[in-house]
Structure formats: structure tokens, C-alpha cells
Records
---
Amino acid sequence: MTRHEMRESAFMLVFERALTGEDVNEIIETAKESEAVPVNDAVLAAFRGVEQNRDQIDACIRPHLKKWTLERITKVSLAALRVAVYEILFVDDIDADISVSEAVKICETYTTKEDTSFVNGVLGSLVRQYREKQKPAEAENIH
């Protein structure tokens, strides 16, 4: 399974959770039984990571919504945002630009052009802020 396929499967599980509110373990079992969504350890780790850190992830997304709320965003866009932000915040071996690019690709497949642009804009703003916050820490490590 490629990293893109892994992200897409994690996105589908996160979307299912946002849509139905079902228990994480029930969603995983259903995905395994139906084989509609390919799952492996990486997919499950990403899905569980998003769900375990959802409050922190959502708190990072909110300031970048500009006159929107999480409740107003489509579930597809929200799921794509959550997977990307999870990677940006919690997965060290993935560059933030790749996470943004992958979220945009997923949106291009599953949602409208407007939603794709919206997700790209939110993630772009979030990544710029994230990088600005990282600079002082990096500078301290240099000295």
C-alpha cells in the first residue's frame, strides 16, 4: 500500500467517524469485514492518532477557518483537514507540504473544487503559522 493509499484509507475512516459518530473500534471492524476500505497497521495508526488527538487537531484548525466553524465545513473537508493536521503535528518523518498536497489530492477526488481550495487555504495558513512557531526553537538549538 502506498502512502497515498494509506492516507486515503485513513481519510475514509475519519470521514466515517465524523459522519456517523460510531465507535472507533466498530468502524475498524466494519472496514476489515467489508474490505471496502483497505486497512493495515499504518492506516489504523493514523486513524487512531487522529481520533486520540482530535481536540488538539481541531483547536489547530479553528483559527484558520476565517468566518467558518468546524460545524459548517463539509465532513469530507473536515476529514481531509484532520488527517493532514495529524501528520503535520504528530508524524515527524512527513514534510508538511506533502501532507497539504495529499489532502488536496484527496479533496480533488471526493469533493468540490471550492472545498478543495478551502482545504488548501486552511492548511496553507496553518503550515505558515506552524513554521513561524518552529523557528525560535530551531534557533535556540543552533546556539
---
Amino acid sequence: MKQPITPTSVEKVMRDTDFIVSKTDPRGRITYGNRIFIEFSGYSEAELIGTQHNIIRHPDMPRAMFKLLWDTIQSKRECNAYVKNMAKDGSFYWVFANITPDLDADGRIMGYFSVRRKPKATAVATVTDLYRTMLATERRVGPQQAIAASTDILANLLAEKGMSYDELVLAI
């Protein structure tokens, strides 16, 4: 069993030329990770391959954001998102992720590709505040209502701005 990792305040910042690339099977188990993924995650290739992609999930990420991501890609649509990841040593790194389903000739999902790049600092500031609010709500209402309550916060923000999620992510 994986030992719990304690998050730290140490941030790793992606270089402008970095692209983190990974591929998973339909259940989210990593089947490929490029050298930049290995570098930022702090895990070896052997530690990553066959492991659930959530091995790098940072506890500051609201559960509702992962539900949105999974719902989107399982409906065979690409998803863009700002994500705070956690490395093996507890440090963190922000990414702007594009996750795309890999479909076979019959349209069945064979897995997922994810390409992440350095996010804009202004976008990170925006989503940090949003995610903090969503996460506080998730913790306040408890596990059974967490995702629904947190999703409502995002939906209300989108309604207030008159934007879809995709429009918001690409605009910030």
C-alpha cells in the first residue's frame, strides 16, 4: 500500500518549453509517462506504470473538478483544466491540462492522453481562489454532498459570467 504523502509548500514551476505527457488505460492506470512527467512527479517510470493517475492528486483539488473531468472525457470529449498536482516528495506543481479520449475505430474508449503545459500565473491565481472555495464547501457539507455542493459553486460562477466551463477555462 502506498504511504501517505504530506503536502509541502515547495512549488516546482514548469519551464515554458515543458510538456508533461501521459497516457492511461480506460480506468486511469498510467501506461506511459514522458521524462518531464517523471521529473515533475518525482516517481520513477517503474513506479508510475500501472498506477492510477491520481497518484499525483493534490489534496487542494476539489473532488468536483475530477468528476467534471471524468464525466467529460468518458463522454468522449476532450477536457481542459487547471490542475494542482503533488509530487512524491510532497511538493506541488500547477499545470494546464488537456485530456483527450483515445478512441478505437468503433468509437470505444481505449484510454486517455494528457498533455500538460505551464499555466498562466493569472489563471492559477483565479482557480486557486475558486478551488479553495469549492474545497471548503466540500469539507463543510461532508462526503455525501461534497461533489454536488462544490459543483453548484462552479455552476453559479459560470451562470454569473454567462460562460460555459470550456469558455471560462480558455478565457482566464
---
Amino acid sequence: MNKQIKRLPDSELEIMMIIWGAREPVTSAYVSEQLKNKKEWKITSVLTFLARLVEKGFLTSTREGKVNIYSPVIGESEYLESESKSILEKLYGNSLTTFVSALYKSKAINEDDISELREFIDKSAKED
């Protein structure tokens, strides 16, 4: 997709992660239930976030009886790809080496992660 995908605030991203994880259209009650042990948001807050996500083009809303059914318009992988490119460009000058180096120096990744990355690169190179 060529259009620029907007970055979501953490609260809206958390709701999208629930919807993507459901793998089927959901109701606001479903989203609220999934958040129950994580957030103390009232249903009005959940409805506000869902409305914003519809407005931003991340979700569609269809009325079925007395409830709205929400479906994702933008897929999880599409959003994550866009965010990954954006982070790499903004914070690391589009340098993957600088990014991985920063992760390694901060101990966010370890030798096992580096080995896994090396295997991924080798495998990807063979497929091209």
C-alpha cells in the first residue's frame, strides 16, 4: 500500500492489537473484555478510541442490530512494516547497523538474537 499510514498513539494501538489478535470482526464489548485486566478504561473510553480508529481509516464499523461490529482496514503486518521503516528512518538515519548496534549495546538483544538475525540474513540472501 502506497499511502502513508499514520502512527497510532499507544492506547489506540493497544486496541488495534486486540482487534488484529481476534482475527474476526469484534464488538466494543469484546474489546472492553480483553482490556479488563490490563486497563481500567470505561466503555465510553473504548468507544471513543474505536470511533477515532474508524475516523483515521484503521477500522470499519457496521451496525448489526443494537451493536457496532468493528473490522480492521489496515492489517497488523502492514502497520508494523510502516512503523518499522519510520523508526529506522527517524531514529537511526535508515541504518540497520546503527539500530542493531544500539539494541546490542543497551542489552535489548543478546548473542542468541544476533545469531538468529545472521541466520535470517543468510536465508534471505539465498532466496533472492
---
Amino acid sequence: MKARLVPCLLVLAALAAPSARAEEKVASVLKGDRDLGEYLSSECVTCHQPSGKQVGAIPVIIGWPEDQFVAVMHSFKRRERDNQVMQTMASRLSDEEMAALAAYFGSLKPGVKN
């Protein structure tokens, strides 16, 4: 029984270990392409003020930490946050696009002409 268990455990361990290529992909997605984010931001700034000033109930997204931005966008995509407009917007975005938007908006400073 033990002789058959060891090869099975080795196969499971190999399958569970992420490949170097998968790790590279995750790292590149997490970094985010600021230029792509700037290109994609036009829809966001129709509601979210690029000046960094809050208007009404629409929150400021300028200067957010990238990880927080991505986490919030994913929660809208999974419909854990209740806002139909944001759920729709987030559902259209890939992980790469979310990271790019996070990189762009995270790089901006409120009150500074960007």
C-alpha cells in the first residue's frame, strides 16, 4: 500500500506546484500596465472624477493602492458588492485590465494635474 501511495503523492505535489510560466503571468498581471490603464480609464472618468474630488456618492478612485482597487473590482465582478453599474463594468474587465486600471489610478495624486 505504501509503495503505491508515494508515487501518487509525488504526482499530486507536481500538479499542485505552480509552473514558472504561471507565476510569471500572475506577476505581470499584478504589476499592471499603466499606459493600458490610462487608455481604458475613459469609461471610469465619466463618473469618477479625474480631479480626485468626490461628487455625490461616487467615490474617489485616484490614488488607491493597487491591491485594494483590484480587490474591489473583483468583488463587483463576483456581485458581492451591490451596484449594478459597477457590476456591469467590472464583468467586462479581464484581470489584466483591472490591474492596468489599478496601476493607472494608483499612480495619480488627488489635486495634481496628471
